[in-house]
């Protein structure tokens, strides 16, 4: 095997592996080094997303939602089921199969594209050299014309509730539980807390989520967050805001969590505690001295808008650099960098990154929240369409939530779209495309949407921004 490549990518997650594939499509010689090891000792490309993040969580969300709907919602349709049981072992096996198919898929894609897969650790040395240490401990020095760093992130630990893998869990542990704990505690009402809290709630756990901030989903549009909180509370998620955890003591197989809620010291006892307070960039042993690559004060690799580090021909993409920690954001950065390396055009539109929370109802948005637009001082208009007024949503028995569109008063530019409701994660794609093409709300208003579809909610929200919705009263819910 060659020791010299046009491009070496360090990290084979959703930022690194697309960079490698696109570089190969651009007729460059490429190696992708990845260190991922599963708990059974097997190796796999795909990083956090495929092995312990996006894909396994969505598999469990789907299974648990089906179980929940069968028990709680099917009777409305006249479908009666008795003796419904959940078999978590089969659910976990299905999940593991989906993960394996997805990670095997990367090997096949690498083979077809001509990417050299290298499983082990990569370390950037000065002068565009990379030290590769295989899992068996053997070492080689490789050289490249360009190096792309895509080493990802890891869960942020909490000193007062340190991970122990048995009682105090990270998100990967929480995806591997063999049974629903009777009482599940989660620290952090963010994306992971809500998704995994929903999974285990649907499978029977009593779930308490402790969130330090007073505002629920502070990063989201607050009208959206308010509606989502209402729905989650109805589902029995016990979300406690303004709860600052001070200690977590494991005793007798249970965890006693102490927290202050602004008034007094409180405590709650759970059987398992998941800590999901965010993730931090992972760059452990990635950079030798003298590479010229710099980290910022939070540990992210410093890059410009094209993901160039300060060091010549060294790039960095995905969770290890600034911006939202999302697989699709990393993927677009990886593709951009591979195109720029090949002398082609490449750009990421950081203003149009969709966010999706895969709960029921789903939550999705793109662009600015109403709070952000208000703070910017730009005059704006808002259109809201409730799913209650959607024929398709009624037919699906999924009428909770709404679609909301915010547009500028001066030139009608779409500034943000926020959806809480059925398949919001799919619906948001239209808004992303509209914003990518700098569409006005009138452009959306004049675009025909099939009837009866959920997508009509986005259409009607655009119309509502000018008080011209046909199927609603043009009022905010
Ligand atoms: P990673 O996926 O972390 O991949 C980095 C890879 O680099 C790893 O395989 C790592 O082992 C390897 N590596 C690190 N250092 C080295 C080294 N020195 N040498 C060789 N290899 C190295 N995002 C979404 O967009 N949608 C979702 O639905 C979603 N769900 C999630 C659910 C959970 C439970 C979690 C934890 C995350 C979720 N995310 C989701 C976030 C998503 O997983 C990350 O944003 C994404 O994986 C980041 O991709 P990456 O390639 O930058 O890093
Ligand atoms: P997050 O940033 O989404 O949420 C963390 C939450 O914990 C926040 O609400 C924060 O206020 C709270 N918090 C922080 N410190 C706390 C403390 N000491 N006590 C109580 N609450 C505290 O982070 P996450 O949920 O851990 O997810 C990590 C990353 O993974 C996110 O960046 C997210 O984008 C990504 N992710 C994405 C998806 C998705 O796209 N659907 C799913 C899962 C994870």
List the helices and strands and how they pair.
Blueprint: E1 4-10, H1 16-25, E2 30-34, H2 47-52, H3 54-72, H4 88-113, E3 116-125, E4 129-134, E5 139-149, E6 153-155, E7 168-169, H5 171-175, E8 183-187, H6 191-202, E9 206-210, H7 222-234, E10 238-240, E11 244-251, E12 254-260, E13 265-270, E14 272-275, E15 279-281, E16 314-316, H8 327-341, E17 355-357, E18 362-367, H9 370-376, E19 380-386, H10 391-396, E20 402-408, E21 414-421, H11 424-436, H12 441-445, H13 456-464
Helix pairs in contact: 1-4, 1-8, 3-4, 3-6
The structure holds flavin-adenine dinucleotide and nicotinamide-adenine-dinucleotide (NAD).
- Class derived from helix and strand content: alpha/beta
How big a fraction of the residues is strand?
Answer: 15-25%
Total helices: the number is 13
Low-confidence stretches: none
Q: Overall mean pLDDT score? A: 97
What is the rounded Rg?
A: 24 Å
Ligand list: flavin-adenine dinucleotide, nicotinamide-adenine-dinucleotide
How is the main sheet built?
A: 5 strands, mixed, barrel
End-to-end distance: 63 Å
| Widest sheet, order of strands | 1-2-3-4-5
Q: Overall 3D geometry?
A: globular
Task: Indicate the percent of residues in helices.
Answer: 25-40%
Q: Count of DSSP E strands?
A: 21
């Amino acid at each position: 095997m060659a020791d010299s490549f046009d491009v070496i990518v360090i990290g084979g997650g959703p930022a690194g592996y697309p960079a490698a594939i696109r570089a190969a499509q651009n007729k460059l010689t490429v190696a992708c080094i990845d260190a991922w090891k599963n708990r059974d000792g097997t190796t796999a490309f795909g990083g956090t997303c495929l092995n312990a993040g996006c894909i396994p969580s969505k598999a469990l969300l789907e299974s648990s939602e089906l179980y929940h709907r069968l028990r709680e919602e099917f009777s409305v349709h006249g479908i009666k089921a008795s003796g419904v049981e959940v078999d978590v072992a089969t659910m976990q096996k299905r999940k593991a199969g989906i993960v394996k198919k997805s990670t095997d898929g990367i090997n096949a894609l690498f083979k077809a594209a001509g990417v050299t897969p290298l499983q082990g650790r990569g370390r950037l040395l000065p002068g565009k050299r990379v030290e590769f240490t295989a899992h068996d401990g053997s070492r080689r020095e490789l050289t490249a014309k360009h190096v792309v760093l895509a080493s990802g992130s890891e869960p942020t630990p909490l000193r007062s509730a340190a991970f122990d893998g048995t009682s105090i869990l990270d998100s990967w542990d929480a995806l591997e539980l063999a049974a629903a704990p009777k009482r599940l505690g989660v620290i952090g009402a963010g994306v992971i807390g809500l998704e995994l809290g929903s999974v285990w709630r649907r499978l029977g756990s009593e779930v308490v989520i402790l969130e330090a901030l007073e505002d629920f989903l502070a990063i989201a549009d607050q009208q959206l967050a308010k509606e989502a909180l209402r729905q989650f509370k109805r589902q029995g998620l016990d979300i406690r805001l303004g709860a600052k955890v001070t200690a977590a003591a494991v005793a007798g197989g249970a965890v006693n969590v102490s927290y202050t809620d602004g008034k007094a010291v409180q405590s709650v006892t759970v059987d398992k505690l998941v800590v999901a307070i965010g993730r931090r960039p992972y760059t452990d042993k990635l950079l030798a001295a003298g590479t010229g690559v710099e980290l910022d004060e939070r540990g992210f690799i410093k890059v410009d808008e094209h993901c160039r580090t300060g060091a010549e021909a060294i790039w960095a993409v995905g969770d290890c650099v600034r911006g939202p920690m999302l697989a699709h954001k990393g993927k677009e950065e990886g593709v951009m960098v591979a195109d720029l390396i090949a002398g082609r055009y490449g750009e990421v539109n950081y203003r149009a990154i969709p966010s999706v929370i895969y709960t029921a109802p789903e939550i999705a948005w793109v662009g600015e929240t109403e709070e952000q637009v208000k703070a910017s001082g730009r005059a704006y208009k808002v259109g809201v369409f409730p799913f209650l007024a959607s024929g398709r949503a009624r037919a699906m028995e999924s009428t909770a939530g709404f679609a909301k569109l915010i547009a500028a008063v001066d030139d009608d530019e779409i500034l943000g779209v926020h959806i809480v409701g059925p398949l919001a994660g799919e619906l948001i794609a239209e808004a992303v495309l509209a914003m990518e093409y700098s569409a006005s709300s009138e452009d959306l208003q004049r675009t025909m949407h099939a009837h009866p579809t959920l997508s009509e909610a986005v259409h009607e929200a655009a119309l509502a921004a000018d008080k011209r919705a046909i199927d609603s009263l043009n009022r905010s819910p």
